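Worked problem 6 (solution included).
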Amino acid sequence: MINLKENQEVKATNSVKKISYKGELKSFPIYRIPIDLLYYNIQNDRIATYVSKRESINGKLNMENREEFNDILGEYIMNSNETAFLRTLKNIKALGQREPGIVLNNGVVIDGNRRFTCLRKIYEERKDKNDFYFEAVILDMESNPRDIKLLELEVQHGQDEKVDYNPIEKLVGIYNDVIKNKILTVEEYAKSIAITIGEMNRFVEQAEIMEEFLEYINAPEQFYIARELELIGPIIEIQKIKRITANDEWRLKKVILFDNLIAKPKNNISKMLQEIGEIMKSDNYDMYFEEHFEMSKKIKEKIKQAPSMDTHFIKSEIRANKEIACTLRDNFDKVSEMNKKIIIKKLPVDMIENVKSILDKIDEETMIKLSGVDRENFLYALRIVKIKIENMEKKMNE
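Solution. The predicted structure is:
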């Protein structure tokens, strides 16, 4: 097992780095560590999202072969944000590593994946081990999942450069660490990223919906699909609907929502899901569901046909299917239009009720005390309102 501080190739520097550690800002010495002693943290939310895709295709990653393991994850980090990677690579080549990272004593990189990847790339190009080290704080702590995740969250929250995480990657972390593995409680996670329990519970709900959708399409925990399809907006709209839906109703309602999400019959699927939520509250919902049901069976058959569900299959076999798209779109448009007509028809009733509500709020004691211009303006407006009401009554009684 690696013990970096006992390794003679690891050299202490005269510099220190301040980091937020266990809720306190502390200073730690910086070390120069040969890059071949280090490896990526598979618990990192961004890396975990990629690993779900990699392992679904190629099987379990072999962490015992550190070089191969690092090569696979390093290539992903390079490609996941090529612009940022090349910018960091250029800076390190010109100026060296200016911002130290954070590693555990067993070699796990907790902070500085991109910088570590750049140094590995430079080392690969120049083949000169003596010139390239990863400068980092070395923390003496047990490398259990809970401690690693708490440290990662504290560091991530405490530095401005961490804002480029994809929202889906954040949900993946919450799903893995709070829901599935129960490494952290809702309260611990919320405290680590400085949000309220209410906000945290909303994220937990979104993570649950993400996984519920993946299970619906026979791709449990294939989180890369949610990222590649950019599902954060639709998930938020579905969450709003689920929050006002009884548990016994959700089983059927989610069929409509998830079918439309995977088929995407309209470009703005978030807006469509929002409007479907309005249909579900209307008298036309039963008709909408009945007409949807036949197409739902065809979508389920398509899902079953997938040799291995992935983004390519969804786009080429489901979203590109004109029969599915047109049927879902036509059913939605028809019922949506019916709902709009009902709203327009009820609009005069809603408006006159609003007028009554406003009139009820006028304080008569204050009204009779009006004087001067205010009194004249009030009486003029009152006469206009009276004339309009009389005209409306006349038209209603014709």
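Discussion: The two ends are 93 Å apart (CA to CA).
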